[in-house]
Amino acid sequence: MNFNEKDLVNGCKQRNRAAQKQLYDVFGGKLFAICLRYTKNRADAEDVLQDAFIKIYENIDSFRNDSPLEYWLRSVVVNTALNHLRQQKYLKDLDDIDMHHNGIADREITLGNFQMQQLLELIRELPTGCQTIFNLYAIEGYQHNEIAQKLGISEGTSKSQYARARSLLQQKLNKEKRFDDGSVRNKQL
Amino acid sequence: MMDPSEINNFEDQWRKAFQEASETPPQSVWEGIEAHLDKDDKSTIVPLWWQSPKLWYAAASIAAILLVGAGFWFSKSGESYKKMDTEIAANKMPQQKKDSNKAPTDQTVKSEEENKVLAVSPGVTTDSFVKPENKTNKNNERAAFRNSSQSFLAKNTSGNKKSEAAVDESQKIINPSSISDSERSLLAATDANDSVPEIAGQQTLVSSQALAALPYNDLEVHFQKRYIFFRPESNSEESVKPVKHKEYWAGLGLMPASFNPDLKIKEAPLAFTSNFVSNRKSVSGSSQPGASYAIQTQGGMRLSKHWSVELGVSYLQGNSSYEGGGYVLSAKNYKSANVLENALADLAPNANTPSNSYDFINGGSTYIDVSKTVSNNYQYLQLPVQAGFTINPDKKLSYSVLGGMMANFFLSNDLESASGEIITTTASDDIYRSVNWSATTGLRFNYRLSSKWKANLTGSYQKAVSSGFRSNQSLDLHPVLYGVSWGVRYSF
């Protein structure tokens, strides 16, 4: 879709409904994919997306054109998702996990054979704490100290939760024999 | 230990897999967002009202009335300071009455009520009482937030994603256990982009604290102004009320009507007096109503909640017919004239009208007793003045009962003659009165289309209270009209 990002933002700042709809049409899909990663079901993801867009429209005046719009939109969505998880008490008791080696070799894996939906399903099967920290660290690219600040946990907890998430994902991949052999089982979301 | 390069590889793969991930959200999400935005738009309409000059005029007039009223009051009594308080706190009197009974123990009462507040809302309210410095800290943090989000944007251009930013306030709301830690580390490093939604959350927190503190403020106000309860009622409050309901409107309508001039020949015209039959028969005719219409414009003013007054200008085309009376045929020039035209001719001050009776008297004439119907149409310009009483004035559907007087300015009369020609009589012929008064009453249904526009349906009845002729010795005219008017009005 052809659009001028600056005009779109200015339209949204003037509360122009057509501009707001265009912003939604352009970025709604990508942002909904983020919401799906942080939640357990579609209904929750839809709630998060709706709340996030309302925040985006209400706070669009604070966005300056000197940073990429998509980066700002993603950060609003991630924060909305975290607020949603806090409200649902999913992030209440995140403790250090005493990780022991699971015996699975840290083999190099290739995710190229997997469809996005399958990988999404794997992430959503993780415990909520692991799911959130995995999303923040591995995909969003936050550092552990930043995650600790965001979630009000210690840096150690963030690290151990991430290690747990990584381990669980490897177990799942191994169990379903999805390593490099191309035997991908199609799984519906 | 895992090889760091392997870890990066693992994360990079996941990041790459989801970098361009997209899933079309269902239509219901946008509908929900739109509904929320519509709600916001509606709520922002309210302040726009305050930008309308009309409201400022109203406010200015209220202020002027209050000022004049207050000045008048002060000059009368001299206890000026107490009077001013009376006006300001007039609507809080019932509560003050209760308080005044407890006057000697006011401090005790105050502290008791504070305790009640604490007991009823132990949440945020309790915090605001127990730790008043907490609120100040948060205000400082909020200021720090704003500064930090601005500085972030500046730094972000140069590729630096980090900036000095204040504590994530929303975390404090959710995790009370972390409050003390995060307060100590006011200037902790965080991604400043996060601050945007969190500022929104913080504002909610601050405003909820402000709400929780309201009862405490109210108590203070009551306590300070308690003594003024015993002041006599100020008159200025009453004088403001009429201003509130003042409203002007302009309306336009079309009224199909049944118009009957009720024209009667009281005594036979000269040409008909020659023999007994014509003398008797000539007065037996009668008027029949015809399909008529009026184009109406009106302007009105609402005086109070229910009462209004309105003025109008209407053009009435009143069609009717006259039946009976027969006609006369002149033996001299074979001219014919029906009873009505002959009667009108008799009334004319100049004797040059075509149906003048002398043609028929001097040359001899024959009376023909035929019941013929002739058209007799009137044009009037009407100026009604009516008072209205409206039931349900502020509802969607309201009803008004109207009553008043109407000045009918005679424009012209078209009478069909015996030969089929139309005889037009105008105001300058001095036969009809130029102004004829009638009484009018009506019932109106108003349907509010918008805040400015109303549609209305008005049933009207008009009856002349004076004769339409200058001389009512031989002819009488008392028009009666029934009509239903369809109209719209615009309020200013």
Structural overview:
Chain A: Residues 117-168 form the RNA polymerase sigma factor 70 region 4 type domain. Chain A: Residues 23-89 form the RNA polymerase sigma-70 region domain. Chain A: One of its GO terms (molecular function) is DNA binding. The complex is a heterodimer of chains A (189) and B (492). Chain A is mainly α. In chain A, 62% of the residues lie in helices and 0% in strands. Chain A has helices at 5-13, 17-38, 42-59, 69-87, 116-124, 128-139, 144-151, 155-175. In chain A, helix 1 packs across helix 2 (17-38) and helix 2 (17-38) packs across helix 3 (42-59). The radius of gyration of chain A is 18 Å and the shape is globular. Chain A starts with a helix and ends in a 14-residue tail after the last helix. Chain B is α+β, with helices and mostly antiparallel strands and 492 residues long. Chain B has helices spanning 4-19, 27-49, 53-77, 80-88, 93-101, 106-120, 124-130, 132-156, 169-174, 179-184, 195-224, 236-245, 276-281, 339-347, 357-363, and strands spanning 162-164, 189-191, 247-260, 263-265, 286-302, 307-318, 320-323, 327-330, 336-338, 365-368, 373-391, 397-416, 422-426, 435-448, 453-464, 475-477, 480-491. In chain B, strand 8 (327-330) and strand 9 form a beta hairpin. Chain B starts with a helix and ends with a strand. At the A-B interface, helix 2, helix 3, helix 4, helix 5 and helix 6 of A face helix 1, helix 2, helix 8, helix 9 and strand 2 of B.
- Estimated helix fraction of chain A: 55-70%
Shape verdict of chain B? elongated
Q: Give the count of structural domains of chain B.
A: 2
Q: Main sheet of chain B? A: 10 strands, antiparallel
Low-confidence stretches of chain A: 182-189
- Give a count of the beta strands of chain B, DSSP E runs of length 2 or more: 17
By CATH, the superfamily of the largest domain in chain A comes out as Winged helix-like DNA-binding domain superfamily/Winged helix DNA-binding domain
User: How is the CATH topology of the largest domain in chain A named?
Assistant: Arc Repressor Mutant, subunit A
The chain-level structural class of chain A is mainly alpha
